[in-house]
Specification:
- The chain is α/β, with parallel strands linked by helices and 232 residues long.
- The protein has a single domain, classed as Rossmann fold.
- 31% of the residues lie in helices and 16% in strands.
- It contains eight helices and eight strands; from the N terminus they run βαβαβαββαβαβαβαα.
- Helix 6 links the parallel strand 7 and strand 8.
- Helix 2 packs across helix 3.
């Protein structure tokens, strides 16, 4: 199976480097993406929005011959959902890594601090304690050294969705910051940010307790969880 890995904010394809071998050992072909504007700190980010990133992943799907599994971490989950909407007949499964699908019109995060049209990795103090579980000082330093500013409009644009066949695409949610039991409680309670996930016809949950960046804090376990999800 072809597997496309979509990084979250501030990260490029190399952020998956400790996860990829576990997926490949399970017999899959991995395509880790670097999204437009994230090629380097000096890359041009003007004019890049959420649709730009969705279209880049759609192009990667179109370049492959068969069904594709999308894996989206954090903000990359919203991008994966946009691709499932654009190509519902090509996506075999979406795996959300500490992420979930956005509903039409919602943005990924319009509260992150914008500096000159882009979003640098904020100070750690701006994140919740649950985000930073297992992200020790060494990992924080490595993350900050590799972090690339995110194009602001990727975070603030409302997602545009149009094909309800996206709800037919099977989903796996790898729950890290909050346990899956809490997610299902939120869905049952009709918490607004779960309204799109509630419409998906098949959702499987996997608990991987750690912070928001399991590709750094629990890469082996994450790779195993992704490989297991693909085989379902």
């Amino acid at each position: 199976m072809d597997v496309i890995l979509i990084p979250g904010f501030w990260l490029d394809a190399s952020s998956w480097q400790r996860v990829t071998p576990l997926i490949e050992e399970a017999g899959h072909t991995v395509h880790a993406l670097t999204l437009p504007g994230l090629e380097s700190r000096d890359a041009e980010r003007a004019g890049i929005g959420l649709r730009t990133h969705i279209d880049a992943v759609v192009a990667a799907v179109d370049a492959l011959p068969g069904p594709v599994v999308l894996v989206g971490h954090s903000g990359g989950g919203a991008i994966a959902h946009g691709v499932a909407d654009a190509r519902p007949d090509r996506i075999g499964r979406v795996v959300y890594v500490d992420a979930g699908p956005l509903a039409h019109g919602d943005s990924i995060n319009d509260e992150l601090p914008i500096v000159d049209g882009e979003i640098p990795l904020p100070p750690w103090e701006l994140f919740g304690d649950e985000d930073l579980v297992d992200l020790d000082e060494t990992l924080r330093a490595e993350f900050r050294a590799r972090a690339i500013p995110e194009p602001a409009a990727v975070a603030t644009d409302g997602i545009e969705l149009s094909d309800e066949r996206r709800y037919d695409v099977p989903v796996t949610v790898i729950a890290c910051e909050f346990p899956s039991a809490m997610l299902t409680e939120w869905i049952a309670g009709e918490v607004p940010f779960t309204r799109e996930l509630a419409k998906v016809k098949r959702v499987d949950y996997v608990d991987l307790p750690t912070g928001h960046w399991p590709q750094f804090t629990k890469p082996v376990q994450l790779g195993q969880a992704i490989a297991a999800a693909i085989s379902e």
